From TrEMBL:
Coiled coil: none annotated. Its EC number is 1.1.1.23. Pfam families: Histidinol_dh (PF00815). Binds 1 zinc ion per subunit. Pathway: Amino-acid biosynthesis; L-histidine biosynthesis; L-histidine from 5-phospho-alpha-D-ribose 1-diphosphate: step 9/9. Substrate binds at S237, Q259, H262, H327, D360, E414, H419. Catalyzes the sequential NAD-dependent oxidations of L-histidinol to L-histidinaldehyde and then to L-histidine. It is an enzyme of class 1 (oxidoreductase). NCBIfam families: hisD. It comes from Solitalea koreensis. Its cofactor is Zn(2+). This is Histidinol dehydrogenase. Belongs to the histidinol dehydrogenase family.
Length: 429
C-alpha cells in the first residue's frame, strides 16, 4: 500500500530520490531498444513482421489496414460509443482550434520589418498505444491537432490486435479524422520505422504520442540519432494530488487509481496537510481496488507510489513543483490561491469536481503530456506541436541605411569581414 513520509523529515537527497522516476531496468530497456532500432534500420519490414510475432504474438501478412477494412470495423461499434467519441472529438477540436494565433509584423527600426509565419510540419507520425489497453482517446488527442495544423502526411502506427487488425474504436476515430491507413506496428519498432522509413512505412519529420518505456526510450534515442524530432518523452502515466483536511478521501483514491490502472510503472502521489485524510485515503484505496478489473496492475503501481504529509499547502506545492507531475490535481478549499504558485506540471485539475479522467477523454485539453519530470522543461501536445514558426524580414533601401552601420560594427568586432561587406555593398550610393 501507499508508503507515508513526513515532508519535514526528508533531506534533500531523499527528496531527490522520491522525485526520480528511473525504471529499475533502465539499462536493459535501453540496450533492447537500441538493438530494435538497429534491426529496423538494417532489415526494414522484415524486422517489423518479426517483432510483431515476438512482442505482440501476431503473425501478420500485411503491415497496414486500409479504408475498406477501417470502415467495416468502425460500423460495428455501438451508437452510444460513437456518440461519446464524437463528443470527445468536438470538445478536443474546439479547444485546439482556439489555439490558432496570428502575430503582428514589427518594424524594429524605420524600414526594417520582421515577422513570423506559421507552417505545418509536413510529415508527422502518430503513435497510438495499444499494449495493455487500446487508447482511441490518444488517437483523437494526436489526430485532431495534426488535422487542424494542416499536416500533409499523417502516418499512424498502433500495435496489432491478436486477430491481426485494429479495434473498432480506433477505426471509428480514423473515420472521424479522415485517416485512410493504419500501420499495425507497436513499440520501439514503430518509432524506429517512422524515424528511418522502411519499404512500407514512410519516414516522417516528427513523431508524436505516448507509450510504455520501450516506446519512450525509442523516441529519445531517435531524437538524438536521426533527423526526426519528437514531441516529448511521454511515458508511464503519473498523477500528484494535493489535498487538505477538507478533501474527500474517496475522490482522492479514485483519482490515484485512475492513473495507477494504466500500468505497474505508473505513479500516483498524494501530498496532504492532513494525516487523517491520508489514512482515510489508504482505506478507500483498498476498498476501491477490489472493484477494479485491473486491480493487480493498479495495486503494483500504488505499491511504487507514496504519500507525503506537509505542514501547509505551500509546502505541498513546493514538493509538487520539485516532482513536476504529468497531472496535478489540487483539491484544497483554497485551490485558487495555489494556481500562481505552480511552476512545473503537465496539466492541472482544479477543485473537487474536476477529475483527471475528464482531461484524459473529453473536456478538451490534450492528454499527451510530459512524464518523468520532463514537465520541468516540456509542454504537452498542442496545436503548436504540429507547427513551425518561420521568421521573415524585409529591409528597404532607407532601412539598410539605418541598420547597416550597427551590423557593420558588430561584424567587424567579431572579425567577420564578409558579413560587414554584405551590408556595406548595399549602402553605397
Ligand atoms: N504520458 C502520456 O501522455 C500518456 C498517455 C497515454 C498513455 N500513456 C502511457 O502509455 C503506456 C502504454 O503502454 P502499453 O504497454 O499499454 O502500450 P504501448 O503501445 O506503449 O506498447 C506496446 C508495445 O510495446 C512493445 N513491447 C512490449 N513488451 C516488450 C518487450 N519486452 N520488449 C520490447 N518491446 C516490448 C510491443 O511492441 C508492444 O506492441 C502506459 O504506460 C500509459 O501509462 C501515457
Ligand atoms: N492518463 C493518460 C495520460 O497519462 C491518458 C489516457 C488515455 N486513456 C485514458 N487515459
Ligand atoms: Zn488515463
Amino acid at each position: 500500500m501507499l508508503k507515508k513520509y513526513n515532508y519535514k523529515d526528508l533531506g534533500s537527497e531523499q527528496i531527490r530520490l522520491l522525485v526520480t522516476r528511473n525504471a529499475d531496468n533502465a539499462n536493459e530497456i535501453g540496450a533492447r531498444v537500441e538493438s530494435i532500432i538497429e534491426r529496423v534500420k538494417s532489415e526494414g519490414d522484415k524486422a517489423l513482421f518479426s517483432y510483431s510475432e515476438q512482442f505482440d504474438k501476431v503473425s501478420l501478412n500485411k503491415l497496414f489496414i486500409e479504408f475498406d477494412e477501417i470502415e467495416k470495423l468502425a460500423s460495428k461499434i455501438d451508437e452510444s460509443e460513437q456518440k461519446a467519441l464524437e463528443k470527445a472529438y468536438y470538445n478536443i477540436h474546439k479547444f485546439h482550434l482556439a489555439q490558432i494565433s496570428e502575430e503582428a509584423k514589427v518594424e524594429t527600426t524605420p524600414g526594417v520589418t520582421c515577422w513570423r509565419e506559421t507552417r505545418a510540419i509536413e510529415k508527422v507520425g502518430l503513435y497510438v498505444p495499444g499494449g495493455s489497453a487500446v487508447l482511441p482517446s490518444t488517437f483523437l488527442m494526436l489526430g485532431i491537432p495534426a488535422k487542424i495544423a494542416g499536416c500533409k502526411e499523417i502516418v499512424v502506427c498502433s500495435p496489432p490486435q491478436k486477430n491481426g487488425s485494429i479495434n473498432g474504436y480506433i477505426a471509428y476515430c480514423a473515420l472521424m479524422l479522415g485517416i485512410k491507413r493504419i500501420y499495425l506496428i507497436g513499440g520501439a519498432q514503430a518509432v524506429a520505422a517512422m524515424a528511418l522509413g522502411t519499404e512500407s512505412i514512410p519516414k516522417v519529420d516528427k513523431i508524436f504520442g505516448p507509450g510504455n518505456q520501450y516506446v519512450t526510450k525509442a523516441k529519445t534515442i531517435i531524437q538524438s540519432t536521426t533527423d526526426t524530432a519528437i514531441d516529448m518523452p511521454a511515458g508511464p502515466s503519473e498523477v500528484l494530488v494535493i489535498a487538505d483536511e477538507t478533501t474527500n478521501p474517496a475522490f482522492i483514491a479514485a483519482d490515484l487509481l485512475a492513473q495507477a490502472e494504466h500500468g505497474t510503472d505508473s505513479q500516483a502521489i498524494l501530498v496532504s496537510t492532513s494525516n487523517k485524510i491520508v489514512e482515510e485515503t489508504i482505506i478507500e484505496l483498498e476498498k476501491q481496488l477490489t472493484l477494479l478489473p485491473r486491480a493487480e496492475i493498479a495495486a503494483k503501481a500504488i505499491a511504487n507510489s507514496y504519500a507525503i504529509i506537509t505542514e501547509n499547502v505551500d509546502e505541498a506545492m513546493q514538493f509538487s513543483n520539485e516532482y513536476a507531475p504529468e497531472h496535478l490535481i489540487i483539491q484544497t478549499k483554497d485551490w485558487e490561491q495555489l494556481v500562481k504558485k505552480i511552476t512545473n506540471a503537465g496539466s492541472v485539475f482544479l477543485g473537487e469536481y474536476t477529475p483527471e479522467s475528464a482531461g484524459d477523454y473529453a473536456s478538451g485539453t490534450n492528454h499527451t503530456l510530459p512524464t518523468s519530470g520532463f514537465a520541468r522543461s516540456y509542454s504537452g501536445v498542442s496545436l503548436e506541436s504540429f507547427l513551425k514558426k518561420i521568421t521573415f524580414q524585409h529591409i528597404s533601401k532607407a532601412g539598410i541605411k539605418n541598420l547597416g552601420p550597427t551590423v557593420e560594427t558588430l561584424a567587424e568586432l567579431e572579425g567577420l569581414k564578409a558579413h560587414a561587406n554584405a551590408v556595406a555593398i548595399r549602402m553605397r550610393d
